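On clarity, I found the account of how folds are encoded harder to follow than it need be. What matters is that the chain and its backbone geometry are given together, residue for residue. For the editor and my fellow referees, an illustration may be useful. For illustration, here is how one protein appears when written out as sequence plus structure tokens:

___
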Amino acid sequence: MNSEPPPRRRPVANPDYQPVPREITPEHRRLAEEFAAIVTPRWSERAVSACLQWLMTSNIPVSWRVTVEDAWVEEEWTVVVVYRSQFFDGPLALRRTTHDPHSNTFSSMYSPQLSSAPDPVQFGRDVADFDIGEPLGTVTDHVRVDDNGIQWWGKLPATPDQPESQLGGASDSATGCQGQSSVHVRRPEPPTRTEESTHDSSC
């Protein structure tokens, strides 16, 4: 397999430009501190730590209006961030993973198939800038709502609870996921989470 290509070039930003006051919630600060304090972090903990830190320091203007409400990791390779965006009504939950257990390969923002895990810090910053920090666009047509009203997108192993009529088996063009049977999504205590899914499905 080819090596990972060069990272996407981030928008040029004036470090002195402050479009609006940055919105950093107490929960965001607490989570960032907790993940940064882990002595021997796993790949996923390093990635979510980098994401949380980058959202507090990035000079990309859109990141200034993101408010983080929660974040956790699922096993070694998966991160979840619950947040609110100026471009969307209600809380969003982004789930991102780097590992495909079926092919035993990894992926990054720039390459869908790698023989080893990408750099977790770069991965976390890319999630902050190019996932959380950008408008959802057509992804808004495919978010999956759980019973807490949190709207999920990204790499989802199973859909959160929602009426069967909303599943429809439609393909999620942004994630490559197909509509799947519903599963209750618990909101766990950070920084770690154990998923209690009725089945193990992936996209």
Summary: The first strand starts at residue 67 and ends at 74. The helical segments are 26-36, 43-57, 120-132, 164-167. The chain is about 20% helix and 20% strand. Residues 26-154 form one domain.
